[in-house]
Protein: HID1 domain-containing protein
Organism: Graphocephala atropunctata
Amino acid sequence: DLHTAPNRWIQYLTSAENRHALPMFTSLLNTVCAYDPVGLGLPYNHLLFADTAEPLVDAALQILIVTLDHDTSQGDDTAAPDNLFINYLSRIHRDEDFAFVLRGFTRLLNNPLVQTYLPNSTKKVQFHQELLVFFWKMCDYNKKFLYYVLKSSDVLEILVPILFHLNDSRADQSRVGLMHIGVFILLLLSGERNFGVRLNKPYTATIPMDIPVFTGTHADLLITVFHKIITTGHQRLQPLFDCLLTILVNVSPYLKTLSMVASTKLLHLLEAFSTPWFLFSSPTNHHLVFFLLEIFNNIIQYQFDGNSNLVYTIIRKRQVFHSLASLPSDYGTIAKSLTKRTRKHLPSTNDSDNTPETPSMEGSRPALPAEPGTLKATLPDTPGIEKMTGQESGHVMGDLAEVGSAAAVNGSAEPDQTPPTQSTPAPAQSAPHSPVKVKAATVHRSPSLPVGGSQWVPTSEWVASWKSKLPLQTIMRLLQVLVPQVEKICIDKGLTDESEILKFLQHGTLVGLLPVPHPILIRKYQANSGTTTWFRTYMWGIIYLRNVDPPIWYDTDVKLFEIQRV
């Protein structure tokens, strides 16, 4: 245990006893952030000349992340006062220094993704996992750096490579750790309003990814990749579903325009998660439906004007919401739903209309499972989303009324019960917010019937306990107002083309017709011992597996993790 028996080598290296601590730290940081694998850009130069800098950068990066390892979950701002490396890192404050570090991150993270006309003509580095760990630590120890990253669109240069790796690794169980750290970083970023606003920047596809072709923003890219992970990812990724949807909930109040592709993907997720067999098969699956409904509510209440694609998709798939509202809760139907369950995984990406899947980007390759025999390090379980996040108001001004127990899962307020104490402008036009802590509400779960002492069985009382809290009011009101109007215009004008309906919805308004806007609640990442342990294990697992040749670990007794073959 590092608390009782810290690593003495790291302790000495980062302590005041080491007179060279400052020059060592700055040298390591400069070595990593100044490295440019491409150099002058001469094609195939990495094949003609040996790059002596890469092994140095690799080692420097690994030393950096190891020496910066410290548990910040205790809430102590003077974290590890004896660790001078953490002290120096947290005190970096000049914009030019932040720019230098961020340029280094974006250059190296995007390097493996660079496309060239000549195949394999540029050098590609493979230490993206260590880079992501270092980026996490940089944001964790230096909040000014985090705010600097979010201040400009440069954050998208971090987002795109993360999404690429998430999408590419989704079927490979040896890269589950990479999936987790990518999602954790996005969860951290999504807790800040600026991240949601930046996602509205149009996305130009420069990297072939195995996702449907779309024209839209970085928000569309985020949703499309998340949908791909959830519907076609490895089964060990299921614990991440809460995190993925929490990220979307956090950014949803700021998304001005979603494409038709992203809108369809969101509705498909709701369709998949709201099937009775899925809802009844686990005591926590209904949380996913609450998250998705909160996403829809946020967009409808705060960004209705630009989201005609989503509104149209909601109208088209209105039966999903009606089915959810009339979800049966009697014991017979519950039992019947569970016995009729034929598939363990979510439905395929084709929606219920059996429409063909949109073709993937040109030049992309499908996500492949791990090669047989691939080594992987075991990882501890990650804590639940409720332990990883704390709730804050996303509003700019005014104290919000405390959200009571009538709030939906994880504290999302029901729109018609908890109005803001002041009228609040649309978030996209707001100034940077000063978060107000909001008390998290809890869902009261009725006891379920244990079978054989361990197996969980849903009961009618349990279903009724959360079904009554489903935040469907806003969507039902939208359908109540718009469906008759759309049907009337279709009949009157004989419309069969959806573009005309979209044009009608673009000019429509629901001002004064919807319930009072609910408060925006942001679930911010908060440090906890569970993720600290996870990061430590993941970090050492990477270092172990990246240094098996030569066999420096031979005959060592590693207790933090096990090495397994896929």
Observations:
- The longest helix spans residues 473-493.
